[in-house]
Amino acid sequence: MLMHTHEARLDALRKQLAKDGLDGFVIPISDEHMSEYVGAYAQRLEWLTGFGGSAGTAVVLANEAAIFVDGRYTLQVRDQVDGSLWSYQSVPQTSVAAWLGEHAPKGARIGYDAWLHSKGWAQAAQKALADRGATLVPVSANPVDAVWQDRPAPSLAPAIPHADEHAGKSASEKRAEVAEWLAARGLDAAVVTALDSVAWLLNIRGSDVDRTPVALSFVLAHADGTADLFIAPEKVTPALLAHLGNAVRVQPREAFVPALRALAGRKVAVDPERAVAAIFHALEDSGAEIVAETDPVVLPKALKNPVEQAGHRAAQARDGAAIARFLRWVAVEAPKGGVTELSAANRLQAFRAEGGLLRDLSFDTISGAGPNGAVVHYRVSEETSRVLEPNSVYLVDSGGQYVDGTTDITRTVWIGPGEPPALVKDRFTRVLKGHIALARAVFPKGTAGSQLDSFARQFLWAAGLDYAHGTGHGVGSFLAVHEGPQRIAKASGGQAGTGQELMPGMILSNEPGYYKTGEYGIRIENLVLVERREIEGAEGEFYGFETLTFAPIDRALVDVALLSGEEREWLNAYHASVRAVLAPQLGGEDREWLVRACAPL
Fold it and tell me: Is the pTM of this model over 0.85?
């Protein structure tokens, strides 16, 4: 009999823990690759709690349970997770390790799945537990899987070659660069665990994770330029084998741990941020010499080559035309009162798909009307879908996966027929001013994303306002919509990537926002490309941003009096570019609407 309530699932897990001799267990949103978005088979936290966000962790003890989320999910977790079963914990104000150090019973055995956690996390949790005389125990089998009766199997969809005409560089060239990196450090091999790193290194794609075109697999890259790919045999096609060539040995996933254990006496690079604890355990047991190094694929993947940059521009232009058609549709239909968050999200996907080149969305569309727009990473469902009511704010954050690029755009619009309140226009314009300040930023070589974050927040700060998410994340090329190592965010909280210098070829989002709980949300997001800036008399190398995203910004929400002359010029110039890029792709009423939407202020 299937368990249909989260209370029953929690009860079943507790009984399983008692059977396994455990006093508690930690359940993250994670997979064997430390992925941000995971396949259905790895959605253990959502199955257990109902929480549908992309980041979070739960701890189950015999008599209490807690769920940990950051500021993006403060509202969402309360909507989706039963507060009578779970206590809500905010990160970084607390952590799983700190909470266990206070709540784990004396002498308790707290289980964890070493294939779902980093080594650093396990060490921190073990230290916190030791202070209470408790221990952290790696399990041989995940107890959630034992009680999840209808758990989906991992995907067996085929891995697909990604053509050089889109990649801009062959897989053999990429392997050779990794081999040079290994040789320069006196290393024998690197363990590549992140799914998008495997995909980029070997120029393969897949459909194993919703919204991210990757194939479940691991790679061992060697100093001689060869590699071992560990992947389910069902996913391997003759076309894939031909694409990989003789220098890549294809082995079943089950051979991965034995291959790690065969590296005795070798110097092996492993990324502590991306490799799970179980990989470290296997290498330690083998007697290999582990060298902690950032995945050698991460930075080259972030530095888009000219072919990838051109592909992004083409994808953004195509995507922008779909966005423009959607925004006109919303402007016409929503004031009538019959459009819902779900129907709007479906219509937007249909506009994207009509071009025939959409492979997938790049993430679940955030379609937030009124108060739902204030939930930063809101995910619409049949239960939560609201009508886009006349005279309200609507926020839509969406993106597409195309073979030549990955898109991510947010627009906030006013649903008429009335005029927006002055306070809403004030908040929107402060967000816009921050967006423009970042888009226009010029900065010297060596500047980190954290040093630019306040550019986008300054006008909100001046009014005593802020937002609880980063300002910008990296974006892949027909890969992950959230890609490291670069990001633009506050430096506090130990967030990965905020110290990474921004370099030409990196693509990031520019997405400041403002959220009025219970009323509305505002976010304006474009993607930008780091490029060199030629400045007369400059002492050193300077960079700036090329804006890649083209779609109208709602002029009805702009308080023109709050804009400086330079800001007004930027917006008018941006809208002139939007019109130039999109108008040739549109016809009839869509084109007429675009011309009006892009009229100068």
Answer: yes
